């Protein structure tokens, strides 16, 4: 069986901002997240990223700038690699099935790797991340980094039964234990 994990980007891998991350210079990893991804890769996991990036459609940054952010991530991994990065450049009102909590990016991951994401871990920091994980039959994991604390404070019923960790590093420690 393929060991695959899906990660949200902003707030899980890198620091998030309500003003959007608009450049590679602003893209700063959450402490421990890069090391956590390296440990997953060394343990044989496939790592996919599924990220809403409405800043593109809002005109805050270009697809080229998004690529520069992702190249920075790849460089920081020092030879380890992210197996797949999907992004949805749409706004909520576009009602795109690609944008979380829609399942489009996740179905693309399944198709790309010819696997099911059922029961695979999905790590996120928002209600949209939890909702898409549940819609896909995945193990929803919420981290307190990024918008995680705000998400927890919402006390939304979708959070019932969701496992909560401090950060991605703590998630990986638990998965590899």
Order of helices and strands: EHEHEHEHEHEH
- Tell me the total number of β-strands: 6
| Order of strands across the main sheet | 3-2-1-4-5-6
In DSSP terms (H or I, runs of 4 or more residues), the helix count works out at: 6
Radius of gyration (CA) equals: 15 Å
Major pleated sheet: 6 strands, parallel
- Residue fraction in strands: 15-25%
Mean pLDDT: 97
Uncertain residue segments: none
**Fraction of helical residues:** 25-40%
Instruction: Give the end-to-end Cα distance, rounded to a whole number of Å.
Output: 18 Å
Structure classification: alpha/beta
C-alpha geometry: globular
Q: Would you write up a description of this structure?
A:
The protein is an alpha/beta fold and 177 residues long. The chain contains six helices and six strands. Helix 2 (63-76) links the parallel strand 2 (46-52) and strand 3. Helix 1 packs parallel to helix 6 (168-176).
